[in-house]
Amino acid sequence: MQIALYQPDIPQNTGTILRLAACLGIPAHIIEPTGFPSSDRAFRRAGMDYLNQVMLTRHTSWEAFETWRLERRLRLVLFTTTAETAYLDHSFQPDDIMLFGRESAGVPEPVHQAADVRLKIPIQGGLRSLNVAMAAAMAAGEAIRQIGSLPVPISSNGSSLLP
Question: pTM value?
Fold first, then answer.
């Protein structure tokens, strides 16, 4: 299981998600461009000293990320407010990449179309959406619960980091 952020807008949310990934041992991906300088310094405010513990891969574009993902045959699970299926009704798999869109605009239609699965986190009517960091934490928690264990740490080339 991995987390990917599509062109994130808010460095504090990105830092929080990277801290989550570090604490849970989940590889993280940032699909650029970001809406802020995407240096380690920009993330340190929210991620604190956990950032050197996260396995972070930066992809220069959606196309670069998609090429990387397809080469590894990983399933793309998009979290979106427009999905029909609730995340609690989905069967997560260890090779899932959970993708979260921009805080301001989600993801464009080509990204929706590329997703193997589209999921939503049900919320009360009349409300727009959850904070993306909260959504990522809820999704990661459910995926870990279903899979039955924390993720096995993997390297950026897809191989296990365990002996």
Answer: 0.87
